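Internal tracking record. Fields below are filled automatically when a chain is submitted to the structure queue. Please do not edit lines marked as system-generated. If the sequence contains nonstandard residues, flag them in the REMARKS field before resubmitting.
Queue: standard
Priority: normal
Entity type: single polypeptide chain
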Amino acid sequence: MAAILTVTVNPSLDVTTSTAKLEPQRKLRCGTPVHDAGGGGANVSRAIRALGGESRAFVGLGGNTGRQFAALLQQAGVDFIEYALSGETRSSMTVMEEATGLHYRFVLPGPPQSPQTGDEMLAQLERIIIDEKVAFVVASGSLLPGLSSDFYGRLGNMVRAQGARLVLDTHGEALKGALSGRPFLIRLNEIEARALAHETEHDVPVAELARVLVDRQIADVVVVGRGEQGSLITTADEQFSIAPPKVQVHSMVGAGDSYVAALTLALSRGWSLEAANRYGVAAAASAVTRDATQLCSLTGTEELFKLTGKPIYFGEELQASPPSS
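SYSTEM-GENERATED OUTPUT FOLLOWS
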């Protein structure tokens, strides 16, 4: 199996709880909190582990919160490499309002770092990629304050130079700065796709936007997540959509990370892009049926994989019969 390395430079100790009703100016009594080692890449590694796969997680940690995070990651059975940060690893909180079932997420910034921190991280990551013959690098989540916005772009160039593939899931300035590194695969939502394509007219089809992004060579594969409508996958040679199976949604937290985890794991096992994305959609569907603190499960993902719709191919360049999964 090809080696997978996940990168989380700004992890978060996630605290999840519930309260009867969210109201201002009142002391709100909450239920027993659940703590998880969160942040995009760490979640991806946890989900890969849940799916029966293996990965290594590179995480930047600092302070007492960082030590608690490391203990939780170890309990989850994730093999990880810790980069020591100055300051305290951030915490984030998800509160479920019991009256409505809605989730409210409070996300804090990470500890500020010097620009040199990014250089040191990249140097260490390069050594890991070379020494461990890493085939897939998953960079997911936000950047630490103080790191240059082109951090993921520099990582992408490094990954390509070593013959590996970068799977990217980020947003904002970190996303814009990553494009210079041309990731192998980039996961976006529709708003991000429109922004990157410099298209503000909402009557322009998402499929057209995705083709524009691929033509501009921002990535080999552009995946646009569309919630209940599933995912749209675009490359230079093909474009198809995958609809998710019908499930009862309990929480959307963790769906995206579960998708990326299953997709990358399947690709590392030699699956086709089509089958790997179907597996990703199934994992996301598994995640939304579970509590907010939980990612996908192996049993749920495999059962839903059987129910996930076959890809729908379209576009003038796709008149030939699509390959089977």
